[in-house]
Amino acid sequence: MWDLIGVNTKRAARMSIGFGVSTTTQKSYIKNFLKQSKSHNCHEKIKSLQAMWLDSYSSRKYDKVSIEELLFPEKKEYEHNHNPKVKWNNKTHEGIQLIDEFSKGIWRIDTQKQADGSYDFTASVLYNNVYCFQPDAIEHLCIRNYGKDIYKKWKEMVKENIDDLRFLIEKARETINYTCPSVTCCRRSALLCKEVGITVKGDIAFLFPSKVR
């Protein structure tokens, strides 16, 4: 089910911006993070990264499932795995540790620790039996393989299950004791994060533990 061949390309191009996790408020953490991002001239890197994701994931080829399987996928019960073992097929992922994995319905959230010690997270949705995170690429692939009408139906199905993503975010925040900043892959991704309660500033989404207010 997991696309181990680069499910989250941002892991390969993560920008190292590090400072202590002892910051006690969301506001102060974000302020410090964005200040360091600016000093590292990260804006162009982020835009380049977003363009690369769109190009990479839009051109992928997956085995097609039936329309019934696409629109009525099997929905998983809630599950949380700590330190799940993953065999990376992409060499650029070596050195990355998957820390916590939360799944329910058609949604998945996973947190990672990078080789440089920084943290990241990914929110993915089940499409064509693969967890994907780039909405523009999903739209392109779905229309190419199934047509616009089927894509609209799939999109409605996803919206109807959005509460499961909110549930996972709450579970993740209750569980983690570290903050995960993550580059959003596009405007639609940023809007989704905001809709389900993830703090977004510019192109960066922040998954905070519940104790950080």
Identify the notable features of this structure and list them briefly.
single chain, 213 residues, alpha+beta, 3-stranded antiparallel sheet, 7 helices, 8 strands, 39% helix
Write a structural description.
By secondary structure, the protein is α+β, with helices and mostly antiparallel strands. It has one domain (34-207). Helices cover 39% and strands 22% of the residues. It contains seven helices and eight strands, in the order αααβββββαααβαββ. The protein has helices at 26-39, 43-58, 67-71, 135-146, 148-160, 162-175, 187-195; strands at residues 76-82, 97-105, 107-113, 119-127, 130-132, 180-183, 199-201, 204-207. The strands form two sheets. A five-stranded antiparallel sheet has the order 1-2-3-4-5, with helices on one face. Strands 6-8-7 form a three-stranded antiparallel sheet. The radius of gyration is 17 Å and the shape is globular. The chain starts with 25 loop residues before the first helix and ends in a 6-residue tail after the last strand. Residues 1-21 have low confidence and may be disordered.
Quick synopsis:
The protein is α+β, with helices and mostly antiparallel strands and 213 residues long. The chain is built from seven helices and eight strands, in the order αααβββββαααβαββ.
